[in-house]
# Entry
Amino acid sequence: MNTLLLVEQGLNGLQLGVMLFLMAAGLTLVFGIMDMINLAHGSLYMIGAYLTATLTPLVGSFVLAMVVALPLAALIGMAVEVVALRTLYRREHLDQVLATFGLILFFNELVRIVWGPQPIFLKPPDWLAGTVEIIPGVPYPAFRLAIIAVGLAVAGFLYLLITRTRTGMLIRAGASNREMLGALGVDVKRLYTLVFGLGAALAALAGAMAGPILAVQVGMGESILILTFVVIVIGGLGSVRGALVGALLVGMVDTLARALLPTVLRTMMPPSQADGMGASLASMTIYILMAAVLAWKPRGLFPAHA
Amino acid sequence: MLERTNEGNKRETAAVLIGLALLVALPFLADAIGKGFYVTLFTRILILGLAAVSLDLILGYGGMVSFGHAAFVGIGAYVVGILSWHVFDGSPLMTWPVVIEGTENGFVVWPLAALMGALFALAIGAISLRTTGISFIMITLAFAQMLFYLAIGLRTYGGEDGIALYNKSGLGSSIDLFDKTTFYYVCLAILVVFVWLCRRLTRSRFGMVVRGARINERRMRALGFSPYRHKLTAFVISGAGAGLSGALLANAAEFVGPAYMSWQRSGELIVMVVLGGMGTLFGPVVGAAAFLLLEEGLADLTEHWQIVLGPVLLFVVVFARRGIWGWIAGPAREDR
Amino acid sequence: MNSASRATAAFVAAGLACFASPVTALDGEVKIGMITTLSGPGSGLGIDVRDAFALALKDLGGTLGGVKATVIEADDQQKPDVAKQLADRMVERDKVDVVTGIIWSNLALALMPSLERAEVFLLSPNAGPSQLAGKQCNPFFFGVAYQNDGQHEAMGQHMQSQGIKRAYLMAPNYPAGKDALTGVKRFFKGEVVGEVYTTVGQLDYAAELAQLRAAAPDGVYIFYPGGMGINFVKQYEQAGLKGKVPLFGPGFSFSEDSLPAIGDAALGVMNTAQWSGDIDNPQNKKFVQGFEAAYGRLPSVYAAQAYDVALLLDSAIRKTGGALADKAALRAALQAADFKSIRGDFKFNTNHYPIQDYYLREVVKDDKGRLTNVIRGTVFEDHADPYAAECKM
# Structure
C-alpha cells in the first residue's frame, strides 16, 4: 500500500471518527451527569436523518433543513426525557437499558408507520457533491471533508462550552459530583433536560450528515449505537475527552482493518479462506480493541469519576 | 435479593406446583382444544426459559449483567450443528491428533454443548469479571459480537446462512425427538432439573457468597472469600446451562446460524429475565413465556406489533419492578 | 345496489367465471402460508412480495385454479428460527397446502427439512440457494424466481462481451455473496484484480472504495442487495468513480424498491435480470399497471416473482382439478409450469429451478421522472443453472 492511499484511508478513519464523536459526546455526557444509559440515543440519530431528508425538498436547501431539524430533534429529545426517562435516573442501569430498548422498538416502528419501510433518498448539496484533490492524485469526496470540518468544529465548541461557560461548569460539576449540584441550589431538572437536548441535537446532527452518504432507513440508529458504546467505554464513561480519543481510535482502527486485513491475510493463506476470514476479522477488530482496553484499564482510557 | 416471607413462601410453592402441573398437562390440554401447535410453541418457551434461568443465575443473583449471553446459546447450538453437518457430509470433524467423526447421538452431543458453553464462559468470564457495571455489560457484548462474526466467517458451516439440520439428536431407540410431545417432555425434564440445581446452588454457601458479593464485594473479601472465583464459577455454570439450551434450540428449530448470537438475542434474554422477575429462577421461565406469547399474540394483531411491545417493556420496568413472578408469588421482602 | 341487481351481478360474475376456467365451483379451499419479512430493514422486499401476491389473487377473482384461496400471513422478521416456528404452526394449526413468501436463502434452507417431512410445498418467490439446486435438491421445493447465481452469470457474460480486462468484484461476506462472485467468474474470463467481501449490513464503503480506486480496474461488479446497495452506489458516485469506471450489478441491486433511495447515482447503470417492467406481453402489462394502480409505486423484481408464484400455483391447481392432497400430481403439475409467466418463456429444469432468459437492463427515468429499468438486450436465452446435474431427484 502506498503513502497516498494510506493518507486517504487516514481521512476515511478521521471522518468515521468525528461522526462517532458526535454520537458519543451526547451519550457520554448523559451518562456522566445523569448516570443514565440511553440506548434510544440511536433513535435520535435516525430522527435527525429523517427530519433532514423530509425537510430538504420542502425548504429547498440541505443546510437550511439541518438548521430546522436540529432544534426539532432537540425538542423531541427533551420531550422524551421529560415523559419517559426522568423516572429512570435513580434506577439501576439494567432498568435503563431495558426501558430504552423498549423506546428503540417504539421509535423504529413509529418511523416505519410515518415514513414507510422504504429507505429515503437524500443527496449532498450541489456545492459539496464533487471531489476535492486535497493532495494531488487523491480526489476525496467534498462532503466527507465537510463532515470532518463540522465534527472538529463541534469538538472545539464543546471544549469551549465545557471549560469556559457557566453551563459548562455545571456540567463538569455534575459529572464529578452529582449530589453537590443540588446542594448548590442549581435547578438540576432543568440542567438535565438541557444536557439531554444538547445530546439529542448532536446525535441528530450526526444523523443529518449521514443522510447523504448512507441510506436513510429504519434501524439505521442501532448499528452506529453499538459502535458509539464501544467508543465511550474505551474512552472512559462520562468523559468528553475520552469520547474524542475513543472515537478517533475506533474510526482509524476500523477503517485500517477493513483496508489492510484482507490483503495481509491473502499472503498467509489461500485466497478463498483469506477473503472470508479477512472480512470476519475486520468486523471483530474494534471489539477485540475494546476487550483489550477493558482488560488493561477496566474503567477505560480517561475515567471521568476518578 | 428477594427473600420471601413465610406467607409468600407458601404462595410461591403453590405457584410453582400449579405451574409445573400446567406444563406437564399442556400437551393434553393443547390436544383437547385442538391446538396441537401450542406444544411446539411451548417447547420453544421451555428452551428459551432454560437460557433465561441460566442468565438469571448470574444476573439476578450475582448482579452480573451479561449482554452477551446469547453467545453461549449459539455455541451450544453450533456444537449440535457442526457435528450433525459432518454426519450429513460424511467427513470427519478432525483427523489430527485423533480422528473425530460427526455424531448425532444426544448423549454425546448435549453434554458436549454444555461443556463447550462452560469452557467459553470460563475464558470470557475470566477477563470480563475484572470489570463491573457498564464496562461489564459492554465487554460481554464485545465477546459475543466477536463470536457472532466468527460464526459468519465459518464458510464450511454455511457462514451467515447457518446449517439446516436434517436430523434431530438421537436419544436411543425408545425416545423419538421427532415426536413433538416427546421432545416437549425432554425439554421440560431438563428445565426442571436445571432449575432445581440452580435453586440448590443459590441456597448453598456458594450461593450466599455470590449474592453477598453483589451487595458488598469488599465485605465478602474481608470474610475470607474470593468473590472473583465464586462469580466466575457461577458464570461458568450459567454458560453450561445456556450451551445446553442452545443444543435444544438447534433441535427444535432444526437450524443453527449466527443470528442466534446477535446482540438483539442477548437483549431479549435480559428482557425475559426482568419481565419474569430477577433472582427468582422461576420468574425467567414465566418471562420467556410472556415474551414469546406477547410476540405471537401481537404479531397476529398487527404487523406494527413492536410499537406496542416497546411501551410495554417501558411500563414493566417503571411500574412492575418485581416482574410477573413477584406478582404471582406474592409479597417479597427486599433487603438489597 | 339493490338486492335484485346484486343477484344479477353475482349471476353474471358466476357465468363469467364459468367461461374463465374449465373447472368451476370446486369444493374446499387452498390455504397458502405467506411467510415473509414484514418488519426490520429487509421489510421492503417482503411487503412487495405480499402485495404482488395479493394483487394476483385479486386478478384471479380470489381463487387459484378455481379453488377458493385463503392466505395466512406472518412476519418472519428475517430470522430463520422464527420462520421455522411459523411454518410449523401453519402446517399444524392452519393446515396450509403451500408455503411461499420466503425472501432469504438461509430461511429457505432452514424451512426445508420440516416442510419436506410434512409434505408441504415451498414455492420460493425469491430465495434460490445453490444447495437446493444441487446436492440437497428437494421434491417439495420450487424456486420460481431464479437460482441465485443466474443474474450474476448473466452479468459476467455481459462484462466479458464488453471487453472488460481488469474487473474488481465486491459482495457481502455470506454464502450468497460468495456464490454471486463465483457466478460472475464462471462467465467472465478476464483478470480479477480484486475480490472483496464486506461485512453483511455494512453501511460505509469509504475504505473499500479507496482500495478499489488504487487497484485501477476497468470495470466493477457489485452484489449488494437492499440497503447495502443504496449506500454503495451513492458513495461510488461521491467518490468520483461514476463515469470513470463502469459499474455492473445484478438486477436486484437496482430494482425499483431501492432505486428511489439511490437516486440519480443509479442512472445509466447496467444490470441483469430475468424480468423487467417493459417486457412486452399482455400479462406483464396487466401486472405492471395493476400494481401501480393498487399501490402507487412501481413493481420491483421481487413483486414480479411473487405474482408469477400465484400464476404458477393457479395453473397447477387447475391441472390437478383441485386435488391438493395428491402431492405427486401437484408436483407434476407445478413442474409442467403450464402458465403464462409475466417474464415470458418459462419452464422448470429437473431440479425445480427455472430455465429462462436473462436480460440486460439499464436504469433510466420514465416519463414521470421516476427511476426504472428498460431492457437493452438479451444476455442468455433459456439459461439453466450449473447445479442441476448434481440433483438426484
Q: What stands out?
A: Chain B has one domain: 2-334. The CA atoms of residues 108 and 169 of chain B lie 9 Å apart. The mean pLDDT of chain B is 87.
